[in-house]
Each structure stands twice: as structure tokens, then as C-alpha cells.
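Before relying on records like the one below, remember that each one covers exactly one chain. Contacts with other chains, cofactors or solvent are not represented anywhere in the record.
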Amino acid sequence: MIRREDSPKILVISNWAPPMIGGPKNLYNLFSQFPRDSYVILTSANAIDPRSAATGSWLPGKYVYFDRKEGFSFTGEESAAGERDRIPIRRRISVQIQRIPAFGKALLDALYLLLYLPKIMRSSWKVIREYGITRLLGISDEGLALLGTYLTHKRSGLPYSLYLFDLYRGNNLTCFTRAVARILEPRLIRNAEVVIVTNEGTGEFLRRRYGGSFRLEIVHNSAFPEDFEGLRTPPSGTPPFKILFTGNVYWAQEGAVLNMIRAMDLLRDLPVEFDLYCPEATASVRSAGIGRPNVRLTSAPQSEMPRVQSEATLLFLPLAWETDAPDIIATASPGKFTDYLASGKPMLVHAPDYSYIARYSREHDIGIVVDRNDIGALAGAVREFLLDPSRSSRYVENALNVFKAHHDARENAKKLWRLIGDSLCRGA
């Protein structure tokens, strides 16, 4: 836990926040180490799904909701009680939105920014005055939180930092948000005190785009080692075998997950199944899993993921080919990658050869890497490994070394605190 004599006050502006999974889980792991009165989370109540509200981990600090009139302000515990029975508006209409043509989605994005940016501005100004905020931290999204952070900075004069879990410009955006990102991202980057990214690949990408005109730091995705230590068992080379995926499936994973589902048709002679612990999946993934006896779609609470992952023979890490946002695929470092490193089980990485995650996994020898969009090659790599799993121990040892070097949540929280706080902090 971090402590200091005169705690800074950080306003974290994020469209997605704990207890949601993915990037917000990383945010939880880091900010749970901060003094609870050193930050306020300004976020969207409508973005928090009922499952996460009921079973996820809430930060102990204050939450302020820019999209709820009665939502100023709550602790994490109070938010949990209020959100468990709430069906978020955004989640209710998500299926209908997917049916809207591209132009209609762009129009909705424009209306969304016009509606919610003023709400963020009003809420942030109220938080700044009430809580004595001294720092702003904007978390990457499709633009709302980043733009809200910048406009709050312009109004208040407070310094701001950016924490990019994914790229902003280069993400899978509509034509409207893509145009906004192209125009405004240079200003966001160059005026920030520091731009924090989660891996070297994203850092190199931004350096190529903007040169040395801004301060860049890396804080890798983080987890707590003790969540996994008591659950690790030696890799097993005996059947039945289990290939495991944990997390949501969106456009960035869809094609690679479909490849794995179809590859299971070529592995029916082996005692192996593909289990997807997947709270949210695309319609095509759900449809592909139907009728395949060696494919199972299920779910479990986020807190159970270390135990679930410990039961795997291989942990599957997918990124897709032929997407509308290849820059995201090239730079992504999925949150589950950190959990996989700590799990004590070998990985199966199925991602394009230009992706950071495939290159990094091959360089550090932390698992099987299939970097071709080829179902036969994927099935062949799985078959070869299951018939001769002698590489398991080497993969696991290398992965644990990478985790210890870069992904410990307590060490990374100290680094983040120094970057956005001040030099007087010390760890305990």
C-alpha cells in the first residue's frame, strides 16, 4: 500500500471503470494501492453491466457518475449496492445499435459526445472544487474521457496525464470519431505531462507518429502474484486436455477465436476441449460453438479466474486478422496476458506476425505462437504440443520471470504514483 505525508488529489476520468473487466481491472489493481482519499473516479454508471456490478471489485475511493443526476457521489461500496439491480441503458440497446448502418453509428457517436462532454465538464468542475483536485488522469476510450480530460485541463489549468490502455487514433472508430481523433490526438499527446502506455510496442508506435515531443512512460498491465501462487500446479501432460480462454470476445479477438473453434473439428480424435469463459461474445462466436461437443461457452466471476486458469493445459490468447483497426492489433497488450503469465500454465498465442503480442511471446519464449491465419496450422501446433508437452516447463518458467520483472501490481502502482503524483511518496 502506498502512503505519503501530503497525498495528491487525482481526478481519474474514465468511461470504463472498476468493477468492469479488461482495462478497468488493471486500473483496480493499481489504484487499490493508492490512499482511498487520493483520487476520485469520474465515470459512466450506464457502462457498468449488472454482472460486473454484482461480482467485480470496486475501488474503495469515491465514484462520481457524469450520466446520473442523483450520482454525486458514492464510495465503491455504495456504488455496488446501487448498481447490482440496475440494467444499464447502454447495455439494453447494445444489440439494436449493432444493427444500425455505419452512418447511423457515426451520428450516434456525434450525439453522444455532444450530450456527455458537457456533463463531464460540469461534473469534473464540481469535483475539482469540492475535493481539491491537483492532478487529472485521462484513461483511453473512444474519445469521450480523453477529450473530457483535455477540456477540464483547459478550464481549470490543472496538469493532466494520459493512460492509454489502447490507442485512441487508430482504434476501431466510426468515421466521425476517427476524424475527431485525427484532429485532436496530437494536441492531447503533446500537452500532457506524461503519456503512459502498457507496453513497448505502443510506445514505439507513438514515437514514430509524434517523435520526441512528449514524455512517454510504460506501466505494464498488472496483477497481484498472490492471487495465483497458491493455485499453480505443474503443467500436466496427461489427458483430458483443456484449452482455455477467459474474457470477452469483441472484434479484436473474433476471427482468431473462430479459428480455434473450427480447429477443434480437426482435433476430435484427441481428448481435448476448448472452454471459453466468456461473459460477452459476438453472435458468430456463440453460433460457431453450438453443436460442437468439444467446445463449451460458459462464465464465472472475475474473482474465480485464477482458479479457472490453473485448470488449463493451454491458455489461449487471440488477436484477429483483417480487422478495421490493424494498429490496435499491432500494439495491443490484452489484460488477460498478464494473468496468463502469472498462472503457471503455458500459452497458445494466435495473432498476426506484426502484432506486439506475437513478437513479444516469441522473443521471450513464453508459449506456442501461431502467427498465421491458418486453421490447419493452428490445429497442427496444438496437436504437436499435446502429443509432446515437454516444452511446458520452459514456457512457464519464462512467463513467470516476465511477470516478476514487469507486471507486479504493487511495484507498478508505485511507479504510477510517482508519475502522476509527486516525489514524496514511499511504499510500505
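The first strand starts at residue 2 and ends at 3.
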